[in-house]
Amino acid sequence: MSIVIHKILGYKHVDLEVDNVTVARVLNGSSLALCASTLMQMIKDFLARDWKVTVSHVPREVNMVANKLASLSCGLPLGMTSYTTPPASVDPLLLVDIM
Predict the structure, then answer these.
(1) Nearest Cα to Cα of residue 14 among 61, 59, 58, 47
(2) What is each CA distance from 71 to 12, 39, 87, in whole angstroms?
(3) Which of 4, 23, 28, 86 is the most buried (most CB within 10 A)?
């Protein structure tokens, strides 16, 4: 994934919004909770690559489109999924966002 994002798309700055405040704190280095987790260490290693990553907490209720996209990804193989148009199940949430 880092090769796709970094090398092909050329991103140098990524804003990572997470809906778990504890995870945001751990990734920002302000909490030791979950630090022993192998998954958290893998995520930290990924974030330490040659780019700037800003991690922030955004409650799930505030970012329903991202939450829906994340739930749609559960049945997909590991990797990056890109949409040229939003999936139909996201349309109602996008309408709520613009109002």
Answers:
(1) 47
(2) 27, 19, 12
(3) 23
Contact predicate 25/31, CB 8 Å: yes
What does pTM read for this prediction? 0.59
| Cα of 30 vs its chain's centroid, Å | 19
Residues 6+ positions from 69 with CB-CB distance below 8 Å: 87, 90
Per DSSP, helices labelled H in 3-90 are 21-27, 38-47, 64-72
Strand partners, 16: 55
pLDDT in tens, 47-86: 777 778 888 888 888 888 888 888 888 877 877 777 888 8
Contact 26/33 with Cβ under 8 angstroms?
yes
Q: Report how far residue 10's alpha carbon sits from residue 4's, in angstroms, rounded to the nearest whole number.
A: 9
Instruction: Report the C-alpha gap between 88 and 72 in whole angstroms.
Output: 11
